[in-house]
Design brief:
The protein is mainly β. The chain has one domain: Lipocalin (Beta Barrel), CATH 2.40.128. Helices cover 13% and strands 38% of the residues. The protein contains two helices and eight strands. An eight-stranded antiparallel sheet has the order 3-2-1-8-7-6-5-4. A hairpin with a 3-residue loop joins strand 6 and strand 7. The N and C termini lie close together (12 Å).
Amino acid sequence: MSDPKKIKIDTVNGGRPQDHEALKRNYFEGTTVNDTYLFYSPNGQQIPTNPKVLADNTDFSFELKEMPGVVWNVTNFAIDHEVAKGNWTNGVQIDNDDGTFTAQAGGTLEEEASAASGY
C-alpha cells in the first residue's frame, strides 16, 4: 500500500511527454509546522524549492536532477492534506500555455491493486 501522507502527482497536462514523466510520481508531504509542505522525488529525496517550504497559494520554483538547468515554475498552487494542483512552466514546453498537474494523497486504485497482487 502507498503512504497516505504522500500527495503524489498523478496527472500532468501540457508540455512534452518527458515533462509529464519528470513530474509524475514526485510528491508533497506535510511538515509539522502550520500546514506547510516539502517536495520529494519518487526515491524519497527532498527536491529543493524556492521558497524552501510550500503552502497553499504559494508560487514556487525548482530544478529536477534528471533535467539539469531547467527551472520549473509553479503558480496557482493549491494544497491541503488530500490534494494538490497547480500550473507549471519550464521554458522548454512545446507551446506557451501553462501546463497543469494534480496530485492526491494515498495510492490510485490501480496502484493499490498492483500492490495487493504483488506486481
